[in-house]
Design goal:
By secondary structure, the protein is α+β, with helices and mostly antiparallel strands. It has one domain. 45% of the residues lie in helices and 21% in strands. The protein contains three helices and three strands. A hairpin with a 6-residue loop joins strand 1 and strand 2. It is globular.
Length: 82
């Protein structure tokens, strides 16, 4: 499978004591959104997942997926690691 790079990785912590994750590609983001996201019904999560699928089909810019992924993180208790 070809992975779609979206620019700089997004590194975040899954809660105060959770593991640190480093997402580098659209495919990794989609898997995280579908399988490991804390809020299954979050509108931002669903929008980011749809955009990631679109990027994998080459109809959405991967950088837009990264922005949507960051917005979805803001709706959770996960924290970005700088």
């Amino acid at each position: 499978m070809i992975e779609t790079n979206w620019g700089n990785p997004v590194t975040f912590s899954e809660g105060p004591d959770g593991p640190i994750r480093n997402i580098k590609t659209v495919e990794q983001a989609l898997q995280s959104l579908k399988m490991q996201w804390p809020l299954a019904s979050c509108t931002k999560r669903l929008a980011a997942a749809r955009m990631a699928q679109g990027a994998m089909e080459c109809v959405i810019d991967p950088r837009a997926v990264r922005v949507a992924f960051l917005e979805a993180i803001e709706r959770t208790d996960m924290k970005l690691v700088v």
